[in-house]
Amino acid sequence: MQIVYETMYILRPDLGDEQVEQAITKYENLLREQGADNIQIQNRGKRRLAYEINRHRDGIYIQMNYTGPGNVIAPLERAMRLSEEVIRYLTLKQEVPQQEPAVEEVA
Length: 107
Description:
The chain is an alpha+beta fold. 25% of the residues lie in helices and 44% in strands. It contains 2 helices and 4 strands; from the N terminus they run E-H-E-E-H-E. It has helices at residues 17-33, 73-82, and strands at residues 3-11, 37-53, 56-68, 86-93. Strands 2-3-1-4 form a 4-stranded antiparallel sheet.
């Protein structure tokens, strides 16, 4: 069964554009290897953090929306947890409204 996910992660602000692109590509390829598809990536740019994380006041926000089986999340989050460049990540399962068949009322 395909489930819709959204993963938001924050990269260190001192990374160059090329390093940011490499990180995005790395996680996108990891998702594809695990069977995810419909991957949409948005680079939200450098933003101020609400609070300091690992002595960083800013971060580069990346949002990924994708569909896939339930087993795509664990390898992705493990890679992010072990990464030096990711300072925070969060994955949400999105609720997709089901199309209900229209029921006609009989008068």
